[in-house]
Amino acid sequence: QLQLVESGGGLVQPGGSLRLSCVFSGGIVDSYAIAWFRQAPGKEREGVSCVSFRAYTTIYADSVKGRFTVSRDDAKNTVFLQMNRLTPEDTAVYYCAAELRQYPTICVAPINEGRYNYWGQGTQVTVSS
């Protein structure tokens, strides 16, 4: 059974940076798209970024474009989300998710949570002074 575990969240001041990690176990994910989502209190879950299999493509929500960078290290079964120039509006629980199918999967915009069938438990990111 594939398991995803996020880490790297925490409290950061506006303008600061954090690097989230999503580590996979119980399976090989190099053929699958991995996405990051976030959910702020009282709001719907939002797709933030996605990296396709072999990192052929990456996509970002407009709200994070130019500030966030997604990457993957399949040798370490890990996907990263580097978040720079954070603002209080970035405060949320961040989740990683994998789309596992019988074929390699790519990223599709908009990043729709219905495509992803394995999820982590989330990590809290709080941006506040």
Outline of the structure:
This protein is mostly beta strands and 129 residues long.
Report on the structure:
By secondary structure, the protein is mostly beta strands. Helix content is 0%, strand content 46%. The chain contains no helices and eleven strands. Strands 2, 4, 5, 6, 9, 10 and 11 form a seven-stranded mixed β-sheet that branches. Strands 1-3-8-7 form a four-stranded antiparallel β-sheet, with no helix packed on it. It is globular, with a radius of gyration of 14 Å.
Properties at a glance:
129 residues; mainly beta; seven-stranded mixed sheet; four-stranded antiparallel sheet; 0% helix
Number of strands: 11
Question: Which H/E pattern describes the elements?
Answer: EEEEEEEEEEE
Give the overall shape, derived from the CA principal axes. Answer: globular
Task: Report Rg.
Answer: 14 Å
* Quaternary structure of the protein: single chain
Work out the helix count.
0
Unreliable sequence segments: none
Outline the fold blueprint.
Elements: E1 3-7, E2 10-12, E3 18-25, E4 33-39, E5 46-51, E6 58-60, E7 68-73, E8 78-83, E9 92-99, E10 118-119, E11 123-127
Parallel strand pairs: 2-11
Antiparallel strand pairs: 1-3, 3-8, 4-5, 4-9, 5-6, 7-8, 9-10, 9-11
